[in-house]
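On clarity, I found the account of how folds are encoded harder to follow than it need be. What matters is that the chain and its backbone geometry are given together, residue for residue. The format is easy to grasp once an entry is in front of the reader. For illustration, here is how one protein appears when written out as sequence plus structure tokens.
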Amino acid sequence: MRDEAIEIRMCDDGIGVADPHGSGLQGLARRVTALDGQFELHSPPGRPTTIRAEVPYA
């Protein structure tokens, strides 16, 4: 994590395989990157989905 940044991690208890091109996830990614942030999605088959967003605040 960068200095002076807010990091958020969200996890679910699903079965993975989230569609990164779906409108909801693309919208989140666009909002985070518009703030010069980083957006990561991990959604392996059979495992929970994890989203990580980091946004600078200084």
